[in-house]
Design brief:
The chain has 252 residues and is α/β, with parallel strands linked by helices. It has one domain: Rossmann fold (3-Layer(aba) Sandwich), CATH 3.40.50.150. It has eight helices and eleven strands. The strands form two sheets. Strands 3, 4, 5, 6, 7, 8, 9, 10 and 11 form a nine-stranded mixed β-sheet that branches. A two-stranded antiparallel sheet has the order 1-2. Strand 8 (189-198) and strand 9 form a beta hairpin. Helix 1 (33-40) packs across helix 2 and helix 6 runs parallel beside helix 7. The longest helix has 13 residues, at 79-91. The radius of gyration is 17 Å and the shape is globular. It starts with 11 loop residues before the first strand and ends in a 9-residue tail after the last helix.
Length: 252
């Protein structure tokens, strides 16, 4: 299966800067979650980054295009989605900074097996399939549900590809925070920084951002919460800053 099965249509704006993205509805529409994760990372331009389950390439595009990161690899299991990510990289003229690799994080392709990265990040599938209605589209189902990999497998892959002393960044659901933190510690990815994301000030958090250090010492810092919308229902100043491509440390 190739991207020719999916009319690309016109590219849409990605954030408030110059980046654009093809996102045909037959595959999926990106959410705010990968943008939050990309903003959460305290990554330097010279550091290497691996994005596990990159989808249409939102996180690599954001890091390379807005955060100035010079070497990002996106690993994607589904061939048509990997092809779409490559089209998005070419669309934004970032082929010198971003490489899209097709393969399974549980059984990595040869070009990745020996590599170690300063950062490994992932916006993984959130839900076990038994607990929710699974979309009819196989591409959307794999992106959202633990059909081809589960949380433990994502964390173990992150630990495998992260260099000693390197960092891992993940976004997930608050209801699975205990699973996430305990799985990270078991993989020697010591949780070091955590941010709760709320839809609006009076609402409970609906996402959690976590950073771990491979082989790090215990000690977790909980940052100020991020509110996506203000009391008036419009985007908060912090969320507008995220859309501008800035890091969360600049606004929280």
């Amino acid at each position: 299966m190739t991207e020719e099965f999916f009319p690309l249509g016109e590219p849409e704006r990605l954030g408030l800067g110059t980046l654009k993205i093809y996102q045909p509805s037959a595959i999926f529409k990106f959410t705010v979650d990968p943008l939050l994760l990309a903003a959460f990372l305290q990554v330097r331009s010279q550091e290497t980054v691996l994005d596990l389950g990159t989808g249409a390439g939102v996180i690599p595009l954001w890091l390379a295009g807005y955060r100035g990161v010079r070497q990002v690899v996106g690993l994607e299991l589904q061939p048509p989605v990997a092809a779409l990510a490559r089209r998005n990289v070419a669309l934004n003229q970032l082929t010198g900074r971003i490489t899209i690799v097709e393969g399974d994080l549980r059984n990595p392709p040869p070009e990745l097996t020996a590599r170690r990265f300063d950062w490994v990040v992932s916006n993984p599938p959130y839900w076990p399939p038994a607990n929710h209605h699974v979309p009819a589209s196989p591409l959307q189902a794999v992106a959202k549900f633990e059909l081809t990999c589960n949380l433990s497998e994502v964390v173990m892959a992150a630990a495998r590809f992260c260099r000693e002393g390197g960092r891992v960044g993940l976004i997930h659901l608050p209801e699975r925070l205990t699973d996430l933190l305990s799985t990270m510690r078991a993989a020697r990815l010591e949780p070091k920084r955590l941010c709760l994301v709320h839809p609006k000030p009076e609402a409970a958090p609906h996402r959690v951002l976590v950073e771990g250090i491979k082989g790090g010492r215990p000690g977790l810092k909980v940052t100020k919460p991020l509110f996506i919308h203000g009391p008036d229902g419009v985007f908060s100043p912090e969320m507008n800053a995220v859309y501008e491509g800035r890091g969360l440390t600049e606004v929280l």
